[in-house]
Design brief:
By secondary structure, the chain is an alpha+beta fold. The chain is built from 6 helices and 14 strands.
């Protein structure tokens, strides 16, 4: 992994009604040109319609690899907004994907210090934004979801700032591995426990993975680990 890459774009959005829909979202983001304060709750000026799914705590900042857009555009040539910032991310970069990043990785970004806490879970709003059915399912199937950070130290960030890797937990789990295991219909209990034990993983994910492992343990006649 490149120890540091530049942030190509920084994006914030306001909650508004989705076009042609009665539901609200802040998936429509606009680029920020100058410096923006990043706190434990997220970027100044960025809002979320559903705080259960986005923003604050373990979802303060969302990063999406810009190189994924070319793959999405090939798979969905009629889709809209498949450009950096188009799917609701806060920061856009080249040169860092789910294969490179691990749960618990700590980065210095501008004046802030942030930690990878969990992958993004694609939802229906992505299909609505792209005006194309199946984009969210494709993202989930191919592990192209991007990831969230928690904020360890508040600070100002801006486009062009370096995203510098500074720390990785021992026996870390890559986001690619995390997503692959999680989408298996019947993963091994050992694999699920490895994910749940990942240092820095958001507590909600720990609970979900632990419950899934317990269900498999209780509903596996062979008792496979």
């Amino acid at each position: 992994m490149n120890p540091r890459i530049a942030v190509d774009g920084l994006y914030i959005g306001q909650v508004a009604l989705l076009a042609g829909d009665s539901r609200s979202s802040a998936i429509v983001k606009t680029p920020v040109a100058g410096r923006c304060l990043l706190t434990a709750e997220g970027l100044s000026g960025d809002t979320q319609a559903d705080r259960r799914a986005h923003g604050g705590g373990g979802k303060a900042l969302h990063q999406y690899p810009a190189e994924h857009y070319a793959r999405l555009a090939t798979a969905f040539p009629a889709a809209q907004h498949l450009v950096p910032g188009g799917l609701g991310e806060n920061i856009s970069t080249h040169g860092l994907t789910e294969n490179d990043v691990c749960i618990g990785d700590v980065f210095r970004l501008g004046g802030a210090r942030i930690q990878v806490s969990q992958p993004r879970t694609p939802c229906w709003k992505i299909d609505h934004r792209a005006a194309s059915e199946g984009v969210a399912a494709f993202i989930a199937e191919h592990g192209l979801a991007g990831w969230y950070y928690r904020v360890l130290e508040t600070g100002e960030i801006a486009p062009g700032d370096w995203l510098e890797h500074v720390e990785r937990p021992a026996d870390a789990v890559s986001l690619a591995e995390f997503l692959r295991v999680n989408r298996e219909p019947r993963p091994s209990i050992k694999a699920l426990n490895r994910l749940a034990d990942a240092s820095g993983l958001d507590a909600q994910w720990v609970g979900k993975l632990t419950q899934r492992a317990e269900w498999l343990r209780n509903n596996n006649p062979g008792g496979a680990a």
